User: Which sequence fits this backbone?
């Protein structure tokens, strides 16, 4: 066998290996997407949030700092930008939203070390700066509403939207503890499906008040995922208005230029 023939065979084998690796990568992506899809089978409820509601954003910032920032960061958000957008003075932000000695120009981080988080929870809690953009506000809203008691879980709770979640129910004092009731669905081969929640212990808030807390948190997460969205939308309206006016002027100019053309 000549050297050229051996090189051709090696090249062909390498090409076949690359094609096989590509097929395996596509299969892996497909399997991951299928698993993710199965993970989110729970029906999502509409968040109905409004980032133009400044009072809701202010409340959401307070809840986020008090209940979320201990584990989750928002490293793409600066406190002074928060103060400007939420119509708060820097003094108010320092006194009510900054508890670890940060400067107003710092980002919203915490002191939890990733290695400690992995040891305690099995996984480091993700940064929440873009969670509303990546998962959607309906997902976040339904997730925060869907904790239920599960004695077999290390945290004592589980979640309908994200089964086997490592996150504890940090808002349990406000909501109380619910039990998930599952019923057998004969139409689907006797599979157990979620039916309803039953309250085991009451929280500090009733259902309506707790729902408003969740909507405020989701509203805040939606805002920090895209702080410029209101300004961008307002600019878009002005641009469209300008183009419409320009269209009228251009049409009138064209009509004037071509009026003598038969």
Assistant:
């Amino acid at each position: 066998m000549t050297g050229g023939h051996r090189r051709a065979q090696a090249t062909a084998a390498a090409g076949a290996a690359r094609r096989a690796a590509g097929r395996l990568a596509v299969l892996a992506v497909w399997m991951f997407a299928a698993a993710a899809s199965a993970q989110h089978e729970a029906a999502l409820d509409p968040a109905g949030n409004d980032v133009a509601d400044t009072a809701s954003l202010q409340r959401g910032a307070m809840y986020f700092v008090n209940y979320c920032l201990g584990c989750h960061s928002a490293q793409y958000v600066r406190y002074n930008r928060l103060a400007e957008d939420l119509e708060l003075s820097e003094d108010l932000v320092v006194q009510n939203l900054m508890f670890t000695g940060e400067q107003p120009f710092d980002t919203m981080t915490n002191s939890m070390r990733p290695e400690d988080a992995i040891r305690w929870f099995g996984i480091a809690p993700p940064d929440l700066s873009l969670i509303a953009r990546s998962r959607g506000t309906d997902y976040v809203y339904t997730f925060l509403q869907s904790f239920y008691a599960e004695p077999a879980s290390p945290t004592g709770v589980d979640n309908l939207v994200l089964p086997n979640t490592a996150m504890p129910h940090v808002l349990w004092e406000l909501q109380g503890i619910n039990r998930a009731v599952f019923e057998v669905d004969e139409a689907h081969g006797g599979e157990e499906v979620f039916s309803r929640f039953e309250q085991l212990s009451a929280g500090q808030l009733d259902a309506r008040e707790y729902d408003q807390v969740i909507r405020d948190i989701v509203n805040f997460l939606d805002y920090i995922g895209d702080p410029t969205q209101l300004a961008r939308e307002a600019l878009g309206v002005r641009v469209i208005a300008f183009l419409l006016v320009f269209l009228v002027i251009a049409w009138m100019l064209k009509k004037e230029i071509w009026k003598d053309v038969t």
Observations:
- Residues 20-40 have pLDDT under 50 and may be disordered.
- The first strand starts at residue 74 and ends at 78.
- The CA atoms of residues 179 and 198 lie 5 Å apart.
